[in-house]
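Example 3.2
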Amino acid sequence: MAVCLLKMEQKRSKSLTEIAAIINEELPTHLTSHDCNEYPELVKLLQSLSSHLTSSGTSYDVHRDVIQAEELLHQKKTIWLQYKLLYSELQDMITEFDISCIDMNPASDSEKFYKTLSDLMTRCEIEDTLDCFADPDTTSSLLGLTRAGLEYRNPHKKHKPAIQQKLIPDMETRLKKKCETLLGFYESCSDTNSKLTHAKIAQLPNLLHLDIESLEEESRSLRKDKQNQETLFWNYYKVLVEFMDLLEELITSYGLHHQAHSDKITSELLAAQCDEMSVNIKVMELEILCDTYTEETVEALKIIRKHIDVSMEDTQIELHWSSQAVAAYEAVGMGFDQLVDEFGMLTEEIANKKWTLNEFHQNLTS
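Structure, written as tokens:
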């Protein structure tokens, strides 16, 4: 019965897991089957919101406006990058010419051309910095300068067509070489067909865009796989906990009863073995005593004990008399100590006089 209930619970948990996966795919949420089980009203709310919101959590109208704004921003960025590319290339041309002038004297036409080009770029940079105010409605400009005024005072205005006519082919050649280098880095090929190479260069932005989209798709797929793995982990963890609870219940209900009976039998067996071992130890102790104390040994020990008893009686008598003498001495009091000291002094004086008499007698004899 418990196994059947567990299987039903697993099917229900699997269904909740699928619902959570669908909601997580449609909305930026991280629901689990546990959340779906605990908060069913929240699940209904999220399911109703999924028809009005995108996977990023924004409404469809806002999402459409964001896409349009991103497209417009992309167009503006593309135009700006084109101008930035041309500007950087012009700067590189002028820098390379200035470096070449260090080693050798350039031709007068080239020097005049690059000087004019540098002057025109400086004027363009000044025009870009005129509108430096934050307020777009203001009519003021930097230092009171205007584009029309700068253009009117441009001494190279009449040379612009000639400069463009000479500059455009050089720019195209330089940019083409850089594109070929970039194409060789992106796609290793040794094809020398210029038309095919030009076609591949023209398709290079689209190819890069497709690669970026592919990487973004792989990144989304990896995030989705990671989320699925986390969901599976917690689902497996929950199932494992349920199995552990069921196993604990089975052990408590069935296994522990038999274990208690088995433990009781084991304890009784161990108690009987312990009693048997205690009896064996006592028997071994008696055998050792019997081997140690034979009849001759016992007779000798009796004689020794008799002598010891006699000695103990004599010692007790002496102890009794000594105790009485000590008590008598203690009864005399402090005067007894003085008499003892005087007796010692007299004994020492008598000994000294005897020694003196002996010495005197020896002297007379000699």
